Amino acid sequence: MEEKKSLGKYIQNKRKNLGMTQKELAAQLFVSESAVSKWERGLSYPDMTLVSPLCEALHISEHELFTASDDWRQRQIEEQARRYKRNKTIWLCVTCIIYAAMLFGTLTWGITTGNGLTTFAYTFGACALLFSLIDVPMLAENDKGVKCFAASFASLLLLEIIARIVSPTNDPHWLWMALPGTALGLLSVFLPIILAYADWDFPFMRHKAAFCLGVDSALIGLLVIFGQFFYGDGHPAVPIASTASMLALIWGVFIVAHYTCWPVPFKISAGLTIGAAFCLFTNALIEALEGYGFRVVFNANRSNSGNIAPDIGLILLAAAAVLAIIQVIILKRRPRP
Questions:
Q1: Is 7:39 a contact under the CB 8 Å cutoff?
Q2: Cβ neighbours of residue 121 under 8 Å, at least 6 residues apart?
Q3: DSSP state for residue 203 in the 8-state scheme
Q4: Which Gene3D superfamilies does the entry link to (predicted)?
Q5: What are the counts of helices (DSSP H) followed by strands (DSSP E) for the chain?
Q6: In the CATH hierarchy, which fold is given to the domain comprising 2-70?
Q7: Which pLDDT score is estimated for 284?
Q8: Domain spans of the chain, in order of start
Q9: Is the pLDDT of residue 79 over 60?
Q10: Between 304 and 327, whose confidence is greater?
Q11: What pLDDT score does 302 carry?
């Protein structure tokens, strides 16, 4: 009985605070005025089908109705959420007005000075970059880091494309170097961070490090290929082969360290072996591509003019063999369970 009276008193107070009569509340809920009167006098409960409409009419939550008390904490949270949405809308409107004013101003100034297209294009690219850095973080509801990075990355590429179109230079091919160069500089730093916090259900998410290294390798390869295609002379295969051998060294060490289940000494030995192969055969491969034949020449007399990479390769190979032998001896002497 006390619960009914408490609920009825709460409904009555909320109705009066809104300046609403029992008849008006009953009309909104499609019930009789006497039903509302019985609720407020604690003679009956509202039907369960009327809970949501009653809460909406009294501007309260269902939790507040059931407890017959105001949930000030929840109201504060909801008010903060409404205030944030309102401030976000105001901020976006203000920034969009600023962008529009910048574009209109530069277009007008450019037309009067005869340089409208160039100025407007650069201003448009700058506004796109500002939008990606200032507004996208407020618009993104989830995966903010990914969306902000993607937007800023696209804006930088757009600026480079705009520069190539509206400001031609004596070098018509620089854009082909700038695009993968920008991508390499940004992705090599931010892609591992993004993948570390991303919760995506993609197969490559089980191999994040390999995916990042693959992206970097592909971009480095594009840079070298474009560089040789547009600016190279002599033997274009030489820098491509040198880059490929360096990437093979990195990938070999990465696979051994990341995907093998060997003991650490065996991993170190395998890494030294891969490094030895790089030192022994890379220079020979380059000389073969230059037309001198494939040959491994050791600098036995340690002359300053000689190539000591093969000698270093032998040292690494010997160190790998010694380390592997020591580990095998240790494993053989270890008592078996």
A1: yes
A2: 162, 165, 166
A3: G
A4: lambda repressor-like DNA-binding domains
A5: 14, 0
A6: 434 Repressor (Amino-terminal Domain) (1.10.260)
A7: 82
A8: 2-70, 78-168
A9: yes
A10: 327
A11: 53
